[in-house]
Amino acid sequence: MRRTRLGAGSRHDAGRAPGGLLRLLGPAFVAAIAYVDPGNVAANLSAGAGYGYLLVWVLVLANAMAVIVQYLSAKLGIVTGQSLPEALGERLPRTGRLLYWAQAELVAIATDLAEVIGGALALHILFGVPLLLGGIIVGAVSLAILAVQRTGQLGFERVILALLAVITVGFVAGLFVSPLDWGGIASGMIPRFEGTATVLLAASMLGATVMPHAIYLHSSLARDRHGSSTDPRRVSELLRATRWDVGLALLLAGGVNIAMLLLAAASLPGVAGTDTIEGAAAAISAHLGPAIGVIFGIGLLASGLASTSVGAYAGAEIMQGLLHVRIPLLLRRLITLLPALVVLGLGLDPTWSLVVSQVVLSFGIPFALIPLISLTSRRGVMGGFANRTALRVVAIVVAALIVALNALLLVLTAVGAA
């Protein structure tokens, strides 16, 4: 069912001439925050410090997959006027909606675990704030950022884009003073593993890059920013702008991810303590200078604040679409914040908790991706904008690769392969 729902940004853009491409960019950059969150930092630094350039190919492949996935999500919202959770909620029976929401909520909790812990670690690195107090501060600040969204999506986008700029500088700065091995980078483009540990890291990197909550949310962001239209020319214009939006946003996010892995591979191999974010930050300061260490910490803090805000936004959209209820923002924030605070309060290893959370996210991807591909391929849902054969085949291959990687992880872990 198609319905028109114009958000704050869509009213602004709807009357623009087709040439106003730049004015139509933005939603994908908000979704891209999910691709540079603290979970990415943990997974990428662990992979680079522990295995050098071996897993560069994972990031390149994951980012290429993400472009396809995020475009399909935005396309669903623009063409149908429904978010992915709404489309699923409309088609599933009550029991199915509840079960589907349960797994999506688990994904949201894993997402917030990574983001709150990352922000708390950043506050500890920069100011010595205890981790539990840091998690509480991150949760409180994220509420303030979310409050901006109530004034209109464009304002929220601007805040997130500003934080994205800080994240980019924070995570890329160290690369300019790192001795890169270009031969090693080229070798890292050849797909391969070295035992169970590298498969676990690859699944973690994939879960940190192609994130379920970003798949659910992007359809909402695009719909609320642009609205939906019955005019095929208008829809074509919006989809063309969306392809640019997604391509540019994920080119930036992918570059930041690869930069983190290259930084760790070039400057931190064999350095004690680099299996934790805190240890990696200390090593970065020791080997690349205190200024680079502070910049890295600021980037990590911006990443935690931005990503937990976007994650909470996604959680609210998922709950509304699947359960048909909207709960107060504070309660929604607490639902996913409390598990992260428990982890911090118990003193569990924060970096390992981050990596495990990304593996959980990786297993949640098929539940978002497979329905997305199915819905966007149906003419009954998308009309003339249903996925063409080539795009449908590529999307199916992407889903199959993700499921295969997770199955391989299970098998190798079960048999204890080295």
Please explain how this structure is put together.
This protein is mainly α and 418 residues long. The protein is built from 18 helices and no strands. It is globular. It is a multi-pass membrane protein. It comes from Leucobacter ruminantium. Keywords: Membrane, Transmembrane, Transmembrane helix, Transport. One of its GO terms (biological process) is iron ion transmembrane transport.
Task: Summarize this structure briefly.
The chain is mainly alpha-helical and 418 residues long. The chain has 18 helices and no strands.
Give the tags.
418 residues, 18 helices, transmembrane helix, mainly alpha, 78% helix, Amino acid/polyamine transporter I, membrane
